[in-house]
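User: Batch of two.

Assistant: Item 1 of 2:
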Amino acid sequence: MVIPDHQISLVATQRFGRRFLVNFDLSASSDYIGAVFNPATFGSRAYRFRGIAKADLGASYTLPLSESRSLRFFGYVDNLFDREYFESGFRTPGRSGRAGASISF
């Protein structure tokens, strides 16, 4: 099991008016020891991984279409500062983003 000794998470959400929303998520942890598996020998070794320091940023805007319908546009950036880190021994992608729209009726 891979659990760091110390972890912290901070989430801040700010609404601007009734339509615009911004979300910031910061996660950090201390170094941790994880097992690295060797598929050739079926053995594993303990390895110390550097702790995580990762920030994500999201935003959305809701456009009312009628009294009961709305269109929401959203965007999200993972790993905002493009930090290299590992999860359970696997290197994670650098900065990435996604965007989309949803309709409510």
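Item 2 of 2:
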Amino acid sequence: MRRSRHFVLLFCLTAGFAFAQGHESNEDLLIWKWANFIVLAGGLGYLMYKNLPPLFTARTAAITKDMTESEKIRRDAENQAADVERRLAAIEAEITALQARSKEETVAEADRLAKHTAAEIARIQAQSVREIEDAGKTARRELTRYAGELSIDLAAQKIRSRMTPATEDRLVRGFVRDLK
């Protein structure tokens, strides 16, 4: 860096002497053009040498960082997609399990209802048999009572039809004799 400063300083001094002498020929102009080009190229080269490597290094680091972050984001996205796929597979399995459990519960409920219905039918039949038996017993009692009443009425009619005043008198005398 010092050398380039010395070179620029030397060049400026030489250019200043040449300019101070006042020789303005085509050759001098050509030399000045070349000197100007060399100074300009040297200055640009120096600036590029000084500023571009850090710029390229920073840009390379930024690109590398972006690529690393992109790779991480891609991996995260793939992991999330795989997680979603696992969840979907689990949901499908869960749906299948729920359907199977629903079928089992439906069958169990149908069995329970069938047993309950059979029990109710048996209970109603037993109750009907009891009611029929009770009705039969009641009917027999009423029939027996009615038959008894009819028998008594019939006997009373027969007795009344056979009863004459002479028979009544004989019965009363026999009753009185039994009382004595």
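The chain has one domain: 2-160.
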